[in-house]
Protein: Peptidase C39-like domain-containing protein
Amino acid sequence: MSLALPISSPLFGVLVPAIKVKRVLVTKTAINRFVFVAIVAILAGCASLDRQAPGELAPPPEPIELADVPFFPQTEHQCGPAALATVLAWSGVETDAETLSPQLYIPAREGTLQHEIVAQARQHDRLAYQIPAEPQALLAELAAGNPVLVLQNLGLNWLPYWHYAVVVGYDPEADHFILRSGTHKRHTTARRTFDRTWARSNRWAIVAVEPTEVPASAAPSSYLAAAFELEQAGRVDAAQHAYRSGLKHWPNEPNLALALGNSYYSDGDVDMAIDIYQHAIARGAYSGPLYNNLATALAEREQWAAAEAAARSAIALNDAHREHYRKTLTTIRCRQSNSCQP
Structure:
């Protein structure tokens, strides 16, 4: 058992404002010419990010235990590296606690911050997804074969003792959870005891999965946020895989198509972006931002009639970004006639 350090700001999942996003989402040329709706503007409106309130545990009909999940016994104050190594190794990353420790452990504080756990998962091209703060979500991940990294307070609210562990199973008959914890490969703890210690961290827990997989407890907006943060971390290929996986899971979610198209557009692949936007619209997953960005991309290729039609479709939806779409239409017209002012 060792020290983990919960961050004092809101838990992972809250997105930074658009002005703080470091990675440019569109080309400089496009910024100068058109009004492009970046995915961060969409996420800013998803305040709840699909999070659910804690609920009663509905026990599974059969015991669940991921017995083959690797075990890295922790050394002093190294519960964070040990827990992250456990879930990363299970997902196929070749690593161990000793390798991860220099990137995670803060000697002055003798512990590891939550956001560093998440950041390091991303640096290994894994989708770090914060599951809903309820026991049922934890069980759903276990049933899908995903061990869950949790933050517990093994002390008291007024005298905390923070600890990272990995939940690998649940036995409904004994009513206990099974964890990789500290120096114990198979630590069992009564459900109610576990839930009390977990609740003291606001039930913070993540899974770290390959970007070709969608976590069992995922909801569209919070999944999109996790994939977008992967892209912001510079793991663009992994993020694009995650967007595509999300689209396979939720084919009618326009914001996932928007994010995927924007990602290709920002990397200069305008034709791929157009293809993604058009395919999403054709299958009914349309939105104002999707039409607007399609208009922008088509205008980059000087397909003026199609660009104007897409911009008009965006305006017709009459959503909160309507004035942006009007500016896009105006810019398309002046660009076509070479009458734009510098």
About this structure: Residues 64-209 form a domain with the Cathepsin B; Chain A fold (CATH 3.90.70.10). The first strand starts at residue 64 and ends at 65.
